[in-house]
Amino acid sequence: MDREWNDNQPIYRQIRDRVVAMILDGVLKEGDPLPSVRNVAADYRVNPLTVLKGYQQLVDEHLVESKRGRGMFINTGARDLLLQGERHKFLAEEWPRLYATIQRLGLTPQELLDAAATRPSSNHAEKEPKP
Fold first, then answer.
1. In the prediction, which pLDDT does 81 show?
2. What percentage of the chain reaches a pLDDT higher than 90?
3. How far apart are CA 92 and CA 96, in angstroms?
4. d(CA 50, CA 37)
5. What pLDDT is recorded for position 112?
6. How many CA within 13 A on the CB side of residue 60?
7. For residue 5, is it within any domain?
8. Which whole number is the average pLDDT over 123-127?
9. Structural domain span for residue 103
10. In this structure, what DSSP letter does residue 67 have?
11. How many domains does the chain have?
C-alpha cells in the first residue's frame, strides 16, 4: 500500500478511502478486522486520532462496526453497499467526462474493447492488506 499522502485531501479521508479500496478489491472481507489504530498510526507515522477519525467515517457509513475491547470489523453487506455507491458516483461524476473524451477523440466501441483486451489486468486483491 502506498505510504505517500496527497496534499489535496485530509489524511483521515485518505485512510478511509484506502480501507474502502481494500474492501472493494476483496483484500478486506465481511467480518475481517481492520488493522489497529495504533499499528496504522505507527506504520504511517500519523496521529492515532487521525486514523480513528478515518475509521469513524467508516462506522458512520455503516461499513464497519466497532466492538468494544475487540476492535473494528467489516460489516456484512459492506462491499455491496460500497459497490452501489461507487457505481452511482462513477456514472454521475466520472463517466460524463470519459464519455466526452471518447466522443471528442472519435473512438469506436470496438477500439475501446480492443484496448481493454490488450491491457494487462491488475489484480488489486494481491496488495498489502493495510490501509
1. 94
2. 80
3. 7
4. 9
5. 94
6. 7
7. no
8. 46
9. 78-120
10. E
11. 2
Cell 462491499 identifies what position? 79
> pLDDT tens digits for 47-95?
999 999 999 999 999 999 999 989 999 999 999 999 999 899 999 999 9
Q: Are residues 53 and 84 in the same domain?
A: no
Instruction: Give the per-residue pLDDT at 7.
Output: 87
Same domain, 82 and 106: yes
Query: How far is CA 44 from each of CA 61, 71, 86, rounded to the nearest angstrom?
Result: 24, 19, 26
Write the CA distances from 90 to 64, 94, 96, 98, integer angstroms: 23, 5, 9, 10
pTM: 0.73
CA 60 and chain centroid, separation: 16
E strands within the chain? 64-67, 71-74
Please indicate, yes or no, if residue 125 is contained in any of the structural domains.
no
Residue 128 is assigned to a structural domain of this protein: no
Output the CA torsion sign for 52, 58, 62, 64: negative
- 69 and 99 inside one domain: no
Lookup: cell for 104: 471528442
DSSP letters spanning 39-66: HHHHHHT--HHHHHHHHHHHHHTTSEEE
